[in-house]
């Protein structure tokens, strides 16, 4: 997996500055969280790393590779969104296999990789179901399996637990954390929930109005007034 370097990145929507000169270094294998209130620029930054938003100024690197101009599908990133975003017409197996088919793996390899990913997210018994036959938490496990099955160098998650009830959120949080540590994937996670950020992260960037106010471990962040 990659180290991710964000150097002086800004984003403007007309006269509005959504991100103002953001600089961050995310280490290989780190669980790194962007924390801040709604509208502070977290999603904008995540989408720039994924390649879905253009970068108006500044630079992003994966290790030493300059990626500003590399299109999203050529960055080896996995993405999980708040609203599940699984394909409704495909069953669980087919949803997870989708990215592997696009990458032209052979059938045996696809089957093995999908089985492994489903086992990791604990939904092996739901392969043949459609998303409409799954709970929100189960759909989010499908989305997670689909993101990790391609062995991404960077895993990007945007409020993946926000639509779940409180109890499930705590369970999924711990499952995601374990999975991330086992696989060692560099992970960038977006949330507005401070408790969640403190529980799940190796380090946290606290954002406000398009800028980074503070970067530190949960202990560092919690200690500060
Ligand atoms: P967060 O993820 O922290 O809630 P966003 O990155 O979604 O914040 O948005 C940051 C700011 O940029 C917000 O004020 C939002 O309204 C604005 N914004 C985001 N996308 C657009 C867009 N496509 N056009 C105009 N303004 C946008
Ligand atoms: P295609 O769209 O090319 O006809 P599918 O998407 O139906 O193929 O299936 C692709 C691969 O996934 C095949 O190897 C198929 O056997 C396997 N597969 C699909 N659904 C399941 C399932 N519920 N359990 C196990 N394997 C499945």
From TrEMBL:
Keyword tags: ATP-binding, Cell membrane, Membrane, Nucleotide-binding, Translocase, Transport
Name the chemical reaction catalysed here.
ATP + H2O + polyamine-[polyamine-binding protein]Side 1 = ADP + phosphate + polyamineSide 2 + [polyamine-binding protein]Side 1
Taking the record's annotation, the residue ranges forming a coiled coil are: none
Q: What are the annotated GO cellular component locations?
A: ATP-binding cassette (ABC) transporter complex
Q: Which residues form the ABC transporter domain?
A: 4-225
EC number of this enzyme = 7.6.2.11
Identify its protein family: Belongs to the ABC transporter superfamily. Spermidine/putrescine importer (TC 3.A.1.11.1) family.
> Quaternary structure?
The complex is composed of two ATP-binding proteins (PotA), two transmembrane proteins (PotB and PotC) and a solute-binding protein (PotD).
Its function, per the record, reads: Part of the ABC transporter complex PotABCD involved in spermidine/putrescine import. Responsible for energy coupling to the transport system.
- Official protein name in the record: Spermidine/putrescine import ATP-binding protein PotA
Full-sequence range covered: 2 to 226 of 361
């Amino acid at each position: 997996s990659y180290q991710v370097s964000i150097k002086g990145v800004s984003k403007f929507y007309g006269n509005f500055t959504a991100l103002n000169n953001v600089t961050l270094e995310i280490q290989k294998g780190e669980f790194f969280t962007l924390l801040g209130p709604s509208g502070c620029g977290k999603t904008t930054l995540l989408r720039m790393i994924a390649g879905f938003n253009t970068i108006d100024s500044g630079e992003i690197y994966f290790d030493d590779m300059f990626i500003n101009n590399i299109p999203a599908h050529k960055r080896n990133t996995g993405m999980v969104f708040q609203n599940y975003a699984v394909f409704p017409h495909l069953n669980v197996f087919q949803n997870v296999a989708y990215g592997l088919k696009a990458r032209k793996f052979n059938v045996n390899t696809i089957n093995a990789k999908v089985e492994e990913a489903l086992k990791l997210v604990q939904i092996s018994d739901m392969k043949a179901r459609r998303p409409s036959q799954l709970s929100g938490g189960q759909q989010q496990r499908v989305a997670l399996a689909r993101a990790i099955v391609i062995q991404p160098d960077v895993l990007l998650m945007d409020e993946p637990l926000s639509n779940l009830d409180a109890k499930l959120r705590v369970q999924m949080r711990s499952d995601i954390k374990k999975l991330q540590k086992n696989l060692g994937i560099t992970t960038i996670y977006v949330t507005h929930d401070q408790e969640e950020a403190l529980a799940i992260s190796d380090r946290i960037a606290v954002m406000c109005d398009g800028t980074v106010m503070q970067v530190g471990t949960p202990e560092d962040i919690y200690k500060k007034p």
